[in-house]
Amino acid sequence: MIRIVGAGPTGALLAVLLARRGQQVELYETRPDPRQAPAGSGRSINLALADRGIHALKAAGVFEALGSSLLPMRGRLIHYENRETAFHPYGQRPNEVIYSVSRHRLNQALVEIAGACPGVKMYFQHRLEGADFAANTARIRDLERDRLIAVPMQPLLATDGAGSAVRREMVAQKLIHASEIDLEHGYKELSIPAGPQGSFRMANDALHIWPRGNFMLIALPNDDGSFTATLFLPKHGTVSFETLNDQGAVKHFLARSFPDALELMPDALAEFGAHPVGFLGTVSARPWHVAGQATLIGDAAHAMVPFHGQGMNCCFEDCIEFDARVARHASWETAFAEFGALRKPNTDAIAAMALENYMEMRESVADPKFQLQQALSLELERRFPRRFIPRYSMVMFHHEIPYLTAQQRGAMQAGILADLTRGAVRVLSEVDFERAEREILSRLAPL
Ligand SMILES: Cc1cc2nc3c(=O)[nH]c(=O)nc-3n(C[C@H](O)[C@H](O)[C@H](O)COP(=O)(O)OP(=O)(O)OC[C@H]3O[C@@H](n4cnc5c(N)ncnc54)[C@H](O)[C@@H]3O)c2cc1C
Questions:
Q1: pLDDT in tens, the chain (447 residues)
Q2: Atom of ligand 1 nearest to the CA of 166
Q3: Residue 337: what are its φ and ψ, rounded to 5°?
Q4: How far is CA 236 from the centre of its chain?
């Protein structure tokens, strides 16, 4: 019997994969059953789903269930302070899009499919409160009956998210090392309601960004015609959530920084006052497992900041990788150890790239040099498709390229792009493509 703690995206997908392998699974989740519960507010209402996540969902036979709730976003729509806008495509092939999907809808679909798998039992409103590794037992509270139950581990899969209680128990019992590093910026969700008859009030095939240097607003479309906007801002300092502490200050800040967006957000001031500031951070743990008793998977092992839109995609890739280790090894300890050894270099790479991407989204996207390098990346990919793929595309559209490879090749490519756009080069036609060919053939091996 496999016990999974946490029925978020990772736990629910793992349950499906393991059940299809003939395993018996018990899934414990603090929250009520999402199949009956309305969408709650809190963590991001919608998420960007990309190739790695789609590949994993297809492998588990879950992707098709999402159907029309997926909204394709073809690129970034940048909103400048003077209200001008510019569209920058993410890729150059028709399938190189990312999808906005409702977190709640996705979770519902996953839980529905997991619940229908023979061998899966789900216990909602059951919260893990402790894990005693010496006694090989987890303590789980049935919240409805207020009753504590003891559940054997061996194996227990901890998919209980960034604040993982299992990880904190492992650390407290000195079985692993872990760090939780908070970003100095937090986030707050606001909304752009639908127009008449559920129409969209901005382009619905783009991820909208208002980059403003040290902070930014983004908005992703929802399938009811609305957008969910997220303001990322320092938690402390001159312009911060701490100083925006009355309606006048908030109104002045929003009107000055995002005048076009504010016109579309009639409830912005009320929402700003009512919605909590969300925390963002990076979790790192080593090792991820305790013998054959328990292992961390998903955000519990490697939560990252959301600026590459890869956290959940990476978790889904974890599930596929973990399932493959289970298929290969009869021993849980070997499966856990191999999973961690193979996966951690890649999750470290995407966590680092996600942090870098914050600067890109809030500042660089508005810089003409950066835009030239983006356009040049796509042109180089057109000319040398086997050797040069933009780093963003490697991460978002190529599940067959490991994150670590994307990070390493991305660094080499950044050097080439910097060399080719140095000095007076301002537009694509001024780039020396003969030199580009020499550099690429000598510095980048075929993929
Ligand atoms: C603002 C924001 C935007 C994001 N945008 C994107 C995006 O666009 N694309 C993307 O790929 N990723 C995105 N992410 C990341 C994504 O949300 C996470 O990577 C993903 O949700 C992790 O899934 P998980 O199942 O591992 O953890 P979680 O989603 O945190 O799920 C953990 C589950 O465990 C349950 N649980 C917790 N503790 C216990 C306990 N003690 N006992 C029992 N159950 C417990 C929780 O209730 C929850 O259901 C974003 C994150 C944030 C914060």
A1: 999 999 999 999 999 999 999 999 999 999 999 998 766 544 568 999 999 999 999 998 889 988 888 999 999 999 999 999 999 999 999 999 999 999 999 999 999 999 999 999 999 999 999 999 999 999 999 999 999 999 999 899 999 999 999 999 999 999 999 999 999 999 999 999 999 999 999 999 999 999 999 999 999 999 999 999 999 999 999 999 999 999 999 999 999 999 999 999 999 999 999 999 999 999 999 999 999 999 999 999 999 999 999 999 999 999 999 999 999 999 999 999 999 999 999 999 999 999 999 988 888 888 889 999 999 999 999 999 999 999 999 999 999 999 999 999 999 999 999 999 998 888 999 999 999 999 999 999 999
A2: 41
A3: -65, -45
A4: 25
For 72, counting Cβ atoms within 10 Å of its Cβ (0-12 exposed, 13-18 middle, 19+ buried), the class is middle
pTM: 0.96
Instruction: Output the CA 8–ligand 1 centroid distance in Å.
Output: 6
Phi-psi region of 120 (alpha: psi -120 to 50; beta: other; left: phi over 0): beta
Would you say the CB of residue 312 lies under 6 angstroms from ligand 1?
Answer: yes
Nearest CA to ligand 1 atom 28: 161
The token pair that represents 366 in the structure block: 């508005």
- CA distance linking residue 245 with residue 420, whole number of Å: 46
Q: What is the CA radius of gyration of the chain?
A: 23
Contact between 307 and 46 (Cβ < 8 Å): no
